[in-house]
Amino acid sequence: MPYQSDLEKKYVGLFETSPTLSNYLNWFSVYVWENLCSFAKNSITISKVHEEELTNNLVRDLARTLKNEKIALPIRLFHAKDEKKNGQDIEIIIQIDKDQYVLLACQAKILYVNELKNNLKTKYKSLGHTVGEDKKIQIDLLVDHAKKEKCLPVYLFYNYTEYPIPDIKIEMYLYGCSLLNALYLKEKCTFPELSKQTFQALHPPASPLNHLTKIKDLDTLKTLFGEATMDYSIKSYTLKEIQQKGKWIEIEPPLTESTKRLTGVQDLDKIISTQKEIQNAFNPAFRIIITQENLMR
Torsion angle of alpha carbons 237, 238, 244, 249, nearest 10°? Predict the structure, then answer.
């Protein structure tokens, strides 16, 4: 059994007592926080932790929770049929009304906690990433995709910091995973400044991952993770429109659709191991749909 800190055990217990999606996201945020804390404070010779690894852990554990624990979380989980997808890219879809869904184009970035002794100076170095031979700026690709699909581009940050966020009533370790509006970041920073961003420079307005459960309408979506001043359009989609976007296979679908089930979590492990990075666009390997159970009745 993998080692769990006392803090992780506490949040596992909270989830087992009250198996809500918010409690699950809190536990995963603590899991990331504790792993990066250990990595920062111990040996830099330990294998590095990457965005893809943590994102894969999130999806893999969600799949195991849905299958083995038989906990009815209000989510649907999919993987792309095409293996040539980015393991750090996720499409998150949230139901806001009976047949209305909003999309978040989500790209994971990690705080490089292992490279400096002074934790307060650690940076999200890969925010300034370029791709391909023509050095396309990755944030531009993410924003262009979001504008085309009329969705919100966000960064999923994986964090550990010793910086005390002022005037907050949220435990620091729940910022192990946080979300930031990429449009806000694009307005805030020039390209050379992106790779110099620290945790404290972006928190706030970046919010904990469990705030996904607070999205109830388009206005909330636009402001919850940092508000941009530029004009941009976000569309609400019907379920049929969502199902027609891209080619996806559901992981552990409801029993009413059991013929579409994978044979087990090992299938997901195989999918993860064959991911390949695409260098010219936002290409999510996974799709997570968060439903509002009270709207489905």
Answer: 100
